[in-house]
Amino acid sequence: MRKILLYITILTTGLIFIARLFYLQIVDTSLAIRSQDNAIKVVYDYPQRGYIYDRNGELMVSNQPSYDVMVIPRNLKPFDTTEFCGILNLSREELEKKLDKARIYSPMLPSVVIPQLTKSEYAILQEKMRKYEGFYIQKRSLRDYQVDHSANVLGYIAEVNQKIINENPYYISGDLIGRAGVESQYEELLRGVKGVKHIQKDRFNRDIGPYKDGIYDTLPEKGKDITITVDNALQDYGTKLMKNKRGGIVALDPQSGEILALISAPTYDPAKLVGRSRSRNYWELYTDSIAKPLYDRGLLAEYPPGSPFKTLNALIGLQEGVVDVKDSFSCNHGYAYGRGRKLGCHAHKSPLSMIPGIAQSCNAYFANVYRRIIEKYPTPQDGMDAWNEHLKSFGLGQFMGNDLSTGRPGKIPDSDYYNRIYDYPTYKWYASATLSNAIGQGEVLMTPIQLANMAATIGNKGWYYTPHILKEINGQPIKEEKFTKKNYTTIQAEYFEPVIAGMHEVYKSGTAATLRIPGVEIAGKTGTAENFARIDGKRMQLTDHSIFVAFAPVDNPKIAIAVFVENGYWGSRYAGRMASLMIEKYLKGTITRTDMEKWILEHSLEDEYAKPLSGEPFRINQ
Amino acid sequence: MSKSSAGFDWISIFIYLALISFGWANIYSASLGSSSGSFFDLSQPYGKQALFIGLSLFLIVIILSVEAKFYQRFSSVIYIISLLSLAGLFVFGKTISGATSWYSFGSFGLQPSEFAKFATALALAKYLSDIQTNIRMLTHQVKAFIIIAIPALLIIPQPDPGSALVYAAFFFPLYREGLSGFYLVTGLTGVAVFILTLVIGPIWVSVAVLSIGLLLFFRKRKKRPGRLLITLFAIISIGLSFSVNYIFENVFEQRHRDRFNIVLGKEVDSRGIGYNTNQSEIAIGSGGWLGKGWTEGTQTKGHFVPEQHTDYIFSTVGEEWGFLGSAMVVLLFVALLLRLLILAERQRNQFYRVYGYSVIGILFIHFLVNIGMVIGIFPTVGIPLPFFSYGGSGLWGFTLLLFIFIKLDSDRLSY
């Protein structure tokens, strides 16, 4: 015992020490993390966000310097809160709240206290900053908008929220991120890569040089400048035309799939979402549930397409071989079917073949064509699915795979859909039950960009490029296969000739004869869509939507356009005029028909929009 | 080489060299400023330590050249000189950070308490090896205790209670030479009762003491300790337990209380007194398996651990060399201690053996208290890690302590 006591004691001590070291160094990882926290300060170097240019190289978005007041709660010393709050125009409680929030985020990492100082606040604070230990000013760059339109296209940038921080380790509190439009879609191109510096601190929290001589440090990488496909002048013009109306305009270059214009109304000045009033302005826009200015109608609004959809039924009819261009159908103010039901039509010559049928937009003609398509097959289910397949090849009823940050698929019904709603096989359904599809009402829904793409596809005689908004990155054209490969429809090119001729006739003698542009041959189609709203629990019909699709010139289309004006009554009234003016603006650069332009600029639909909200009985379509 | 010489124990010497070299490398890292000058820059701790190491090697040559009998013969003289040097501090001592432990010679200082250890070890060895001494006799126990207590009592008022605590190390040679285990049991029981009371309170400690007491009391065994003794033990233990609170609150100073509370986990205070331990644990914990590499420790560079090149040098090892490096140092110490134990046991001369045991005891207490403190399982007591911590007096004191024993060991065949 006397000899071994010391042996045992020494060995036991050695074992306990090694066990304790094992625990500290290997098992308990929290210590290693804490070491990173207090010995190494990570400082980020934010690169300039890339600029955004329009298709003609006009600058749309650049940057301006901005200054954030940051705090590291652990380093706070007592300070003159009255003076501090005075400079920043804050109440003491607000400041306390912000500091508490910063403490909860992290006592050691910087948090933003006041984002985006005004120039005068910065000038005053800058001089007194040394008095406020724990606070510092961080320079950032903010967006500087050169245009007052296109907010829906450009999007905006905002501080990241906790959810983004948790999901994407690149971002830390106070970072900015693109939150809509191009800013969101091309965030990674635009933002560049922030540089990082690791600074070794001593126990008094002083910088004592770069950590490991900076081997982990990186330089910031400037954001890439991007050129988008929209035409600045066309955007501006379209926004003006849409003033006091609700709806969307989408214009495409059929030969490239580039989006020339994407306009949603009502809209807002993108500069409103920059700076410290951003959050208040955003809230105003966000809570406007009536005008919905943040809602991009060009991409999100799913409307019944109305008459322009007839052109597709004509194409499918030809492809399926159920109708010939020369086949005529009579129309007696509509098309009667079922038990005394009738699809009404306006007054025109009868009977009509395909080209005048399109030009006059005869409902009865297309009811016949549609029935023949569906009834060609042994069951209405098969017919419906064949019809559906053709439409899908136009990109309808699905997300188009474009590079826009938002979108809707629209709706093209298929046999499953009708089987479900009619409870097949308990109850059977036939072509007549779905007859509204013949004229683009009923179950069919399309977004304005789908309508525009439909016009482009018809203009191209059967193919389209997926619409896209990105044109160049740092001056280099994009080469993405998705946007440089033609998508072919299931319709043979030859069948487009009569449909195009019909749409051309719309301008020459049909529903849009008053909208001709001297020297430009246009093919188009008017649309008037019935629509309903639920007001105080009652389903009420509102004034029809005014719809127009067109492409021009007919032989070699350079622009395809869809215009949708909510409650604008008939197709050529608002939408047709706007489409015509937009085409002229794009192709000629100047407007010759100033009286038509004046009419559009001066007419407002605000009264129309106020009707259903007034609580009074109202009349529509007047 | 004469017939009686067995040569020096190269294993111990090798471990010693490994420890001082590695120690220096860590002192270099821990005291490295923003500008890295020459290794021998005498304005920096690492430069001075290089000089101290050089002088130690010179000292070793002298120690090993002197005849072994000299240490035995002159032990009393060395002891008395050592006591005088400690007493002289009260008159000529220089106060550095609150402790009057130093004689100052220009920019260098000497700390006599570091030399008093080997002197006391020699004196105790001399006394115990006296043919007339019988450590089982109470009067001789008292005399031995006095030899140990005088230097300790001279050191406490400096104040340097840490260095005084080291004198507990002499229990090991005394026990080896026949001191009753009763003292060990009593001492350990006292410490256990004290700490347990702090953790679970006097009531539960009393319950535990009574249960163990009753178990022993009624156990039917021939070699059972006397029932009177058991009763006495139990009564004193319970008495101690109930006075722990009083001692803790009134005899201890606040800083002592804090140190206990932190180790016992009763208080979390990473800013005040707990700062050292906390920072030291962070530094070690951040080392991981292999550490951050020599001079790459972020905690070490930022000087987050106070006194890192002296008492907290082991935290640098932990941070920069990781588990592998720090476990290696622990193993080197264990190896050295066990090797010395083998050497001590092979001595036929009692003086040599007592001295050897004293050396082991002193090194062990330093090892236990220092590393225990740095890794947060022992209350903060400021004593250096032998051969590792920065400081000339410490290094020379430990060098003398160890190499005198190596010299004595080489002379073992003359008996």
UniProtKB/TrEMBL annotation, chain A:
<keyword id="KW-1003">Cell membrane</keyword>
<keyword id="KW-0997">Cell inner membrane</keyword>
<keyword id="KW-0121">Carboxypeptidase</keyword>
<feature type="domain" description="Penicillin-binding protein transpeptidase">
    <location>
        <begin position="247"/>
        <end position="579"/>
    </location>
</feature>
<dbReference type="GO" id="GO:0071555">
    <property type="term" value="P:cell wall organization"/>
</dbReference>
<dbReference type="GO" id="GO:0008360">
    <property type="term" value="P:regulation of cell shape"/>
</dbReference>
<dbReference type="GO" id="GO:0009002">
    <property type="term" value="F:serine-type D-Ala-D-Ala carboxypeptidase activity"/>
</dbReference>
<dbReference type="Pfam" id="PF03717">
    <property type="entry name" value="PBP_dimer"/>
</dbReference>
<dbReference type="InterPro" id="IPR005311">
    <property type="entry name" value="PBP_dimer"/>
</dbReference>
<dbReference type="InterPro" id="IPR050515">
    <property type="entry name" value="Beta-lactam/transpept"/>
</dbReference>
<keyword id="KW-1133">Transmembrane helix</keyword>
<dbReference type="GO" id="GO:0071972">
    <property type="term" value="F:peptidoglycan L,D-transpeptidase activity"/>
</dbReference>
<keyword id="KW-0378">Hydrolase</keyword>
<feature type="domain" description="Penicillin-binding protein dimerisation">
    <location>
        <begin position="46"/>
        <end position="207"/>
    </location>
</feature>
<dbReference type="InterPro" id="IPR036138">
    <property type="entry name" value="PBP_dimer_sf"/>
</dbReference>
<dbReference type="InterPro" id="IPR017790">
    <property type="entry name" value="Penicillin-binding_protein_2"/>
</dbReference>
<dbReference type="InterPro" id="IPR001460">
    <property type="entry name" value="PCN-bd_Tpept"/>
</dbReference>
<dbReference type="InterPro" id="IPR012338">
    <property type="entry name" value="Beta-lactam/transpept-like"/>
</dbReference>
<keyword id="KW-0812">Transmembrane</keyword>
<keyword id="KW-0961">Cell wall biogenesis/degradation</keyword>
<keyword id="KW-0133">Cell shape</keyword>
<protein>
    <submittedName>
        <fullName>Penicillin-binding protein 2</fullName>
        <ecNumber>3.4.16.4</ecNumber>
    </submittedName>
</protein>
Automatic annotation (TrEMBL), chain B:
<protein>
    <submittedName>
        <fullName>Rod shape-determining protein RodA</fullName>
    </submittedName>
</protein>
<feature type="transmembrane region" description="Helical">
    <location>
        <begin position="387"/>
        <end position="406"/>
    </location>
</feature>
<dbReference type="Pfam" id="PF01098">
    <property type="entry name" value="FTSW_RODA_SPOVE"/>
</dbReference>
<feature type="transmembrane region" description="Helical">
    <location>
        <begin position="7"/>
        <end position="29"/>
    </location>
</feature>
<feature type="transmembrane region" description="Helical">
    <location>
        <begin position="191"/>
        <end position="216"/>
    </location>
</feature>
<feature type="transmembrane region" description="Helical">
    <location>
        <begin position="228"/>
        <end position="248"/>
    </location>
</feature>
<feature type="transmembrane region" description="Helical">
    <location>
        <begin position="49"/>
        <end position="66"/>
    </location>
</feature>
<dbReference type="GO" id="GO:0008360">
    <property type="term" value="P:regulation of cell shape"/>
</dbReference>
<feature type="transmembrane region" description="Helical">
    <location>
        <begin position="164"/>
        <end position="185"/>
    </location>
</feature>
<dbReference type="InterPro" id="IPR001182">
    <property type="entry name" value="FtsW/RodA"/>
</dbReference>
<keyword id="KW-0133">Cell shape</keyword>
<dbReference type="GO" id="GO:0051301">
    <property type="term" value="P:cell division"/>
</dbReference>
<dbReference type="GO" id="GO:0032153">
    <property type="term" value="C:cell division site"/>
</dbReference>
<feature type="transmembrane region" description="Helical">
    <location>
        <begin position="321"/>
        <end position="342"/>
    </location>
</feature>
<keyword id="KW-0812">Transmembrane</keyword>
<dbReference type="GO" id="GO:0005886">
    <property type="term" value="C:plasma membrane"/>
</dbReference>
<feature type="transmembrane region" description="Helical">
    <location>
        <begin position="354"/>
        <end position="381"/>
    </location>
</feature>
<feature type="transmembrane region" description="Helical">
    <location>
        <begin position="138"/>
        <end position="157"/>
    </location>
</feature>
<dbReference type="GO" id="GO:0015648">
    <property type="term" value="F:lipid-linked peptidoglycan transporter activity"/>
</dbReference>
<feature type="transmembrane region" description="Helical">
    <location>
        <begin position="78"/>
        <end position="105"/>
    </location>
</feature>
<keyword id="KW-0472">Membrane</keyword>
<keyword id="KW-1133">Transmembrane helix</keyword>
